[in-house]
Design a protein that fits this description.
With 305 residues, this protein is of the alpha/beta class. The protein has one domain (3-167, 195-222, 264-287, 295-303): Rossmann fold (3-Layer(aba) Sandwich). It has helices at residues 12-21, 51-61, 75-80, 82-103, 134-149, 171-180, 198-210, 227-238, 268-273, 281-293, 296-299; strands at residues 3-7, 26-31, 42-45, 65-68, 106-112, 154-158, 160-161, 185-188, 192-193, 196-197, 215-219, 225-226, 245-248. The strands form 4 sheets. The chain has a 7-stranded parallel sheet, with helices on both faces. Strands 7-10 form a two-stranded parallel sheet.
């Protein structure tokens, strides 16, 4: 695949994916709220709710694949503005999928583990969904609109972490920056998840995009842990004081939207389909730490416009 289009290219996943793939192919990244400058990929500012403009850009670029990362991802903001959340998370993905289907473009759409209510965990792709928040509800609608418009598209349910342009887009960054400053933080003991390092996620998404895959895949780490345990692992790899992490319930977190407590997803379908094994959880955390040592978080900030 020579030409790739990535939406949400200033976000945590979109930026790291576009940057990583620009070494191998012609990449265009679409941004909106946060502009980019000097990137090794072509950065274009575009409102994805303007369907005509999206059509024109795709006709101009003629991408062979689109990875749709853009979303209204702030869970509490979605609760406050459900109309905007529905427009961006539910309707826009379907519009892009229709364009892909009509032009024979491969598409991977990013969804979330939060389409489940987290009452039991270990969810398969075929299990019934039950989203608890506006964010999760609109993301589920986005899945449905994509597959209705383009049954050959891939929907990837994800949970990931890594270094972002602003330093505020992942739980790992939250723990790193607070603990490195000696600040105490909360760690939820009753919320389980399967976080995948963003670069590992990018590699898997490219395999799904370029391979003969379609429909829904759970693209997360096969190992689950609580958010408190995740914070402790971050502390360990950097040598921070784990005692700064206070084990608390999510009910005491002061959050607006409801969170699913046990978002552990079964990855058997994905692992059977891939030609390589999914990376180990600790490998991802070590990779995250190695990037910090190499100065990666600081080096990417100059791309902010």
């Amino acid at each position: 695949m020579k030409r790739l289009l990535v939406t949400g290219a200033s976000g945590l996943l979109g930026f790291n994916l576009a940057l990583r793939e620009s070494a191998h192919r012609d990449v265009t990244g679409i941004t909106y709220s946060q502009g980019l400058t000097g990137t090794p990929f072509n950065a274009v500012s575009l409102d994805l709710t303007n369907t005509e403009a999206v059509n024109r850009l795709i006709d101009q670029l003629e991408p062979e694949g689109i990875i749709h990362c853009a979303a209204m991802a702030n869970i509490d903001a979605c609760e406050k503005d459900p109309y905007q959340a529905e427009r961006i998370n539910a309707e826009v993905p379907g519009e892009i999928a229709r364009i892909c289907q009509s032009r024979g473009i491969r598409m991977v759409h990013l969804s979330t583990d939060a389409v489940f209510d987290g009452s039991r965990g270990g969810y398969l792709e075929t299990d019934a969904t039950n989203p608890l928040s506006i964010y999760a509800q609109t993301k589920l609608q986005g899945e449905q609109s994509v597959l209705k418009a383009d049954p050959d598209a891939v929907v990837a349910r994800v949970n990931f972490y890594g270094w972002s342009l602003t330093g505020k887009r992942s739980l790992a960054e939250f723990f790193y920056y607070n603990l490195s400053a000696g600040k105490a933080v909360n760690g939820f003991t009753d919320v389980e998840f399967c976080p995948l390092f963003v670069n590992h996620l990018a590699d898997v998404l490219m395999l799904l995009l370029e391979g003969n895959f379609s429909r829904i895949y759970h693209v997360v780490n096969p190992i689950s842990l609580t958010k408190y345990e995740f914070g402790c692992r971050i502390a360990d790899v950097f040598g921070f004081d784990k005692g700064l992490i206070k084990p608390v319930s999510v009910l005491d977190g002061g959050l607006t939207a409801r969170r699913s407590p046990k978002l552990t997803l079964n990855t058997a379908k994905l692992q059977a389909a891939l030609p390589v094994a999914l990376p180990d959880l600790q490998d991802g955390i070590q990779y995250f730490a190695a990037q910090q040592t190499a100065g990666y978080p600081e080096s990417i900030t100059h791309y902010l416009h």
